[in-house]
Design a protein that fits this description.
Layout lengths: L31 H6 L1 H7 L6 E6 L2 E6 L2 H9 L3 E2 L3 H10 L9 H11 L12 H14 L6 E2 H17 L6 H23 L11 H27 L6 H6 L11 H32 L1 H15 L13 H13 L6 E5 L3 E3 L2 E3 L4 E4 L1 H5 L18 H4 L20 H18 E5 L4 E6 L3 E5 L1 E6 L1
Parallel strand pairs: 2-8
Antiparallel strand pairs: 1-2, 3-5, 4-12, 5-8, 6-7, 9-12, 10-11
The structure holds protoporphyrin IX containing FE.
């Protein structure tokens, strides 16, 4: 099926079908307990029931999209907006006025403000910071010592995003605080999304207190960053200056709350997704030494023995394919939601106004209908000769359409550089106590990866 072949039908017309109900629901809870118990397996099995299926979360009906073409149609259609359980849970973190949760004209205006900082031609200016932070990792890591990949990956992700986009100096103490706050906040948000116990989250229990403390510290940090820039009187050409000088549709300066929410909305998804992907890449380098050796060989050939630099990234094509394949099998953003704003249709199925729609890049990117040997880690599938056979929307780790991640070029450049530098410097082994099971939260990453770097 292609989007073009999805027959446009008038919403409400009798030709539209009601999506089939997924199997395995139980009275009262519906599919909620299956989703909570093993969300990745649950989402991956839904395609057996149809291209669009209904799932019951308690009394509520949610529509799951399982066909890649229809995820493209969903993301590109004006009938759906950013809303639903994922975004409602994120609003507590990202605020209601940030680019990731806004809709309509507010969202369009905000995208116009932030977009220049992420344009392809803006990325080389971030090269020196990306290089410095990546090489700093290999200097910190001592051969034979145990590396806690979670904190190290967060550290570089936060520092690069903050230094490139907000031009802050971000001493270790502030980056550390940001990492700790973000880790607790994302964990708490995920619980609130999958187990919506409402008022129970307001009780003064230790977990709720920790969550509230972390959230407060995150907002305090952002206030500090903004206040520091204002008091410095400096106006570097960066994203923070663009936000501080942004105007609303009437030409008036945007409000303090919007500036704050925008910084949170950019810094937090940026850090969590990059950190999760670096953790997955480290796991792959440890588990697939033959792939790490291939990356190392490419690095040697491209750099001719010089330290890996940003200018080499363009020619590190195999390394780029390793990053792509890691993002295919372990996409940081594994679930996305939308809400229908009108009675509409998707793939010939009736979708009522107000319906929540969900789809999983994890399930789509592992679907055997789209990929040969779908569970095998095979970076060569991204060779242009082979990748042309992969369906158009079967690999969209950065999303599609007007909500597509603004940071796709930034992220790919950074992740390719990090992979090249790390694989070129060390071999990695897991150490006892390391737990490489996939941890499902708002993003996916290995649970508690502990690695020993060994000299090359
Ligand atoms: C591996 C890295 C990353 C991945 C896989 C990723 C993935 C995504 C995806 C899938 C979306 C679209 C959500 C949707 O369609 O509903 C998104 C949106 C977004 N991402 Fe990323 N992202 C990454 C890195 C970053 C970074 C580094 C930043 C900022 C520094 C960032 C900022 C944003 C923002 C602001 C949005 C909201 C865009 C909008 O709604 O207009 N992301 N990201």
């Amino acid at each position: 099926m292609t989007i073009e072949s999805v027959k446009p039908t008038t919403p409400g017309s009798p030709e539209l079908r009601v999506p089939p109900l997924a199997g395995g629901g139980v009275p009262l809870l519906g599919h909620g307990w299956r989703l909570a118990r093993d969300p990745l397996a649950f989402m991956s099995r839904l395609s057996a029931h149809g291209d669009v299926v209904r799932i019951k979360l308690g009394p509520k009906t949610v529509y799951a999209v399982t066909h890649p073409d229809l995820t493209g149609a969903l993301a590109l259609s004006p009938d759906y907006i950013i809303a639903g359980p994922l975004w409602e849970s994120l609003e507590g973190l990202l605020g209601k006025e940030g680019v990731a949760t806004a809709n309509g004209p507010l969202h369009r205006r905000q995208r116009r403000t932030i977009q220049p900082a992420f344009r392809l031609d803006a990325i080389p200016a971030y090269g020196p910071i990306m290089e410095e932070e990546t090489h700093a990792l290999t200097e910190r890591w001592k051969s034979g010592e145990t590396i806690d990949c979670t904190s190290e990956s967060f550290r570089i992700a936060v520092r690069v995003a903050a230094r490139c986009l907000l031009r802050g100096q971000y001493m270790d103490e502030r980056a550390e605080r940001l990492c700790i706050a973000l880790a607790s906040v994302f964990q708490g948000m995920y619980h609130r999304m999958v187990v919506p116990l409402g008022p129970l989250y307001k009780l003064p229990l230790p977990a709720n207190r920790e969550f509230n403390r972390a959230l407060a510290d995150l907002h305090l940090l952002v206030d500090e960053i903004i206040a520091e820039r204002r008091s410095s009187g400096q106006r570097p050409d960066d994203l923070l200056t663009a936000l501080l000088e942004a105007k609303d549709d009437n030409g008036d300066p945007i409000g303090e709350q919007e500036i704050h929410d925008q910084v949170v909305a950019i810094l937090t998804p940026g850090s969590e997704t990059i950190a999760s992907t670096i953790m997955s890449l480290l796991l792959i380098l440890a588990d697939h030494p033959e792939q790490a050796d291939k990356v190392c060989a490419e690095v040697d050939a491209v750099t001719c023995g010089k330290p890996v630099a940003f200018e080499h990234v363009r020619r590190l094509t195999h390394t780029n394919n390793v990053v792509m394949e890691a993002m295919r099998l372990l996409p940081a953003v594994w679930i996305l939601t939308r809400r229908a704003v009108a009675d509409t249709e998707l793939g010939g199925y009736r979708i009522p106004a107000g319906a929540d729609i969900v789809y999983s890049p994890y399930a789509i990117q592992r679907d055997p209908r789209s990929y040969e040997r779908h569970l095998e880690f095979d970076p060569d599938r991204w060779h242009p000769q082979r990748s042309k056979d992969i369906p158009k929307y079967a690999m969209r780790p950065f999303g599609v359409g007007n909500r597509k991640c603004p940071s796709d070029h930034f992220s790919m450049a950074l992740l390719t550089l990090v992979t090249a530098v790390l694989a070129g410097s060390f071999r990695f082994e897991q150490v006892p106590g390391s737990d490489d099971a996939t941890r499902v939260g708002i993003t996916l990453h290995p649970k508690q990866l502990l690695l020993k770097p060994l000299p090359r």
